[in-house]
């Protein structure tokens, strides 16, 4: 009888993305509750980007990388992961600091983090176009 030897598949590429995403959701929802309770909406742009870039964008990437492991395990996925996950906390911190203090010293940090976050999205788009195929 012919047997095929199959190596066990690598761990789902999306798990780390989804776990980080839900941490952003906890922070984003917490901020929403605080903003609503205090009626102070100064940090609304931070709330919005923590939820939409942190929760939604990371979770969608995690699901896509789980469904399409070639894309999830590619070099572009690694570039996407590190650029986004290093840029986003800096971007959110610098934006929060700028909104709370008005200190324009935060702007270079914010700008650099925004460019890095945008570059991560370019890597994501390139990854999907190059490496997304039917399994
Ligand atoms: C329990 C969870 C949440 C609470 C309590 C909450 C609360 C809030 C509050 C108080 C505002 C400001 C509203 C204003 O300025 O009048 C806001 C704005 C916003 N939130 Fe949330 N939020 C929650 C979850 C989310 C999630 C999960 C997302 C996206 C995935 C999100 C996206 C937004 C957006 C886009 C705005 C801006 C809306 C605008 O300025 O017109 N929020 N939220």
Automatic annotation (TrEMBL):
UniProt entry keywords in alphabetical sequence: Membrane, Transmembrane, Transmembrane helix
The protein's name in its UniProt record: Cytochrome-c oxidase
Position of the signal peptide: none
TM ranges: 12-36, 48-68, 80-100, 106-130
Species, as recorded: Pseudoduganella buxea
Superkingdom of origin organism: Bacteria
């Amino acid at each position: 009888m012919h047997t095929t030897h199959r190596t066990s598949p690598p761990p789902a590429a999306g798990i780390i993305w989804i776990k980080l995403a839900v941490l952003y959701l906890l922070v984003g929802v917490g901020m929403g509750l605080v903003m609503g309770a205090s009626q102070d909406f100064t940090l609304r742009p931070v709330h919005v980007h923590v939820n939409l870039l942190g929760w939604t964008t990371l979770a969608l990437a995690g699901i896509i990388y789980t469904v399409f492991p070639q894309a999830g395990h590619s070099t572009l996925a690694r570039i996407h992961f590190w650029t986004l996950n290093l840029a986003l906390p800096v971007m959110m911190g610098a934006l929060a600091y700028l909104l709370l203090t008005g200190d324009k010293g935060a702007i270079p940090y914010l700008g650099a983090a925004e460019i890095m976050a945008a570059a991560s999205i370019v890597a994501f788009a390139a990854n999907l176009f190059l490496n997304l195929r039917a399994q």
